[in-house]
């Protein structure tokens, strides 16, 4: 019997990235798509506790899917508890745009969905594809770059390795980032500190009142061994992520200060 | 000269919890309030990249504040980069409702704001107050429970200790949870796995179509040493949080599997 996969994302159920993952995974697994109905980038691990959630059966590209009126985290919860799926693996992506560094994984809806899954029990993999043109991240339809077989091959290879050898130990979520141009193999990496120099751009509306866009350039240099460095070298970055953000190294000092 | 604090939250700029923190902190620091204009609970570390952000000067309870039309993360970014504040400490809260366990800290806007601050440079403390009635978490105005001086005293004590002795080492964010009824002192804790048994409740609209509410009961038992356990014992939980979710224990196994 084929292993089962719950496939979700943050770009929405019609994203070319999701369907590229579907095409690759359906060769090796029974895949159920449960994804946000609309674009939900940068919502991190938001969860809908003030609004009820609707679930719609849809057909996309000739395949059945569930569209969830909510966040990526909601889609995972609906898949597990309303649809009662019991997947061997949750896959989130392929996101159009890399999800690298501490900063990005916590603001990413793609990684947010994977973290939610892991918190609920199933292990999870997040796939993201580097794009060199930042504007392209949010183009839609964005199927063009998804016709590149080498990208689907990475999804198939990572997941079939997991099905054969088991999910990596000491890991809750495996965060996979695929370079725009693949020049090397896999590199096991740690998270970089940040991917962008965060900042704001002030603009003025036609009435002369200011408003702000969050924006900032990419960081120039990345330390060797980090996810940012690996992807910039053209290697496929595999970062093991833990849900537990406790910093035990701080315990002794904190006790001295407060107890 | 007094130390400087950027004070934010996720319940919105008019929350009684924020102003309880303000009252406590203004005795020991120069406090600038930069907070979401409206309720933003459970948005985690969402960041507004599709919408421009407005900033409004407002007067609340007789004090000046900045209301940001965005998420808690946006409020921090606007405070640091549009208002060019350079605070000694970022404080987020006091949230009405505990933020305990892996699960809650990643879906919490209160902790999300603190994580964003720490990623940008300033160290940050998140304060949350346990409530026994889950519905009460989102009541507004909710100033009643904020007239309890013992809650403000915790904020003042934690922050004055940080100003005197420095921010705890090996920590990016200090996550402080105050029990509804304080029965003991501080306990340095690790994050529990979860606070709720996540699930969904199916209901039917007047037209017979289903919709879902995310909900679930609190977990019954909490391991000793965790944040959930400490707060249930009536102790003030101090959890040191790291931004780096890399799981280095997984490196060797992953390399064997993939490289």
Tell me what you see in this structure:
The structure is a homodimer of 259-residue chains. Chain A has 259 residues and is α/β, with parallel strands linked by helices. Chain A has one domain (4-194, 222-258): 3-Layer(aba) Sandwich (Stationary-phase Survival Protein Sure Homolog, Chain: A). Helices cover 27% and strands 25% of the residues of chain A. Chain A has 7 helices and 11 strands. The first copy, chain A, has helices at residues 16-25, 72-82, 101-107, 109-120, 149-165, 227-232, 251-258, and strands at 4-8, 30-36, 55-60, 63-68, 89-96, 124-129, 173-178, 186-188, 199-204, 210-215, 236-241. A 9-stranded mixed sheet of chain A has the order 3-4-2-1-5-6-7-11-8, with helices on both faces. In chain A, strands 9-10 form a two-stranded antiparallel sheet. In chain A, helix 1 crosses helix 5 and helix 2 packs parallel to helix 4 (109-120). The first copy, chain A, is globular. Chain A starts with a strand and ends with a helix. The mean pLDDT of chain A is 93. The interface between A and B is large, with 78 and 78 residues.
Task: Estimate percent helicity of chain A.
Answer: 25-40%
Distance between the termini of chain A: 55 Å
Overall radius of gyration of chain A: 19 Å
Major beta-sheet overview of chain A? 9 strands, mixed
> Could you name the CATH homologous superfamily of chain A?
Survival protein SurE-like phosphatase/nucleotidase
Determine the structural class of chain A based on helices, strands and strand pairing: alpha/beta
CATH topology of chain A: Stationary-phase Survival Protein Sure Homolog, Chain: A
As a percent range, the share of strand residues of chain A is: 25-35%
Query: How many individual domains of chain A?
Result: 1
User: How would you describe the shape of chain A?
Assistant: globular
* Number of distinct beta strands of chain A: 11
- Biggest sheet strand order of chain A reads 3-4-2-1-5-6-7-11-8
Query: Spans of chain A with pLDDT under 50 lasting ≥5 residues?
Result: none
């Amino acid at each position: 019997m084929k292993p089962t996969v719950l496939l979700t994302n943050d770009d929405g159920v019609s994203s070319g990235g999701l369907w590229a993952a579907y095409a690759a995974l359906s060769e090796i697994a029974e895949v159920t798509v449960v994804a946000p109905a609309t674009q939900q980038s940068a919502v991190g691990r938001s969860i809908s506790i003030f609004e009820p959630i609707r679930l719609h059966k849809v057909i996309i590209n000739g395949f059945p899917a569930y569209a969830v009126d909510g966040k990526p985290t909601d889609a995972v919860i609906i898949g597990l508890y309303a649809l009662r799926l019991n997947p061997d693996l949750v896959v989130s992506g392929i996101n159009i745009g890399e999800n690298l560094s501490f900063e990005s994984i916590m603001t990413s809806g793609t990684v947010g969905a994977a973290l939610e899954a892991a918190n609920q029990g199933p292990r999870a993999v997040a796939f993201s594809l580097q794009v060199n043109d930042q504007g392209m991240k949010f183009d839609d339809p964005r199927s063009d770059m998804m016709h590149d077989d080498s990208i689907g091959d990475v999804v198939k290879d990572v997941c079939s390795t997991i099905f054969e050898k088991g999910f990596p130990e000491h890991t809750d979520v495996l965060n996979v980032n695929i370079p725009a141009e693949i020049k090397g193999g896999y590199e096991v990496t740690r998270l970089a500190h940040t991917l962008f120099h965060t900042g704001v751009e002030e603009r003025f509306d036609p009435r002369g009142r200011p408003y702000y866009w969050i924006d900032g350039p990419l960081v120039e240099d990345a330390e060797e061994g980090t996810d940012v460095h690996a992807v910039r070298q053209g290697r496929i970055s595999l970062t093991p992520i833990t849900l537990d953000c406790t910093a035990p190294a701080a315990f002794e000092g904190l006790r001295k200060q407060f107890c």
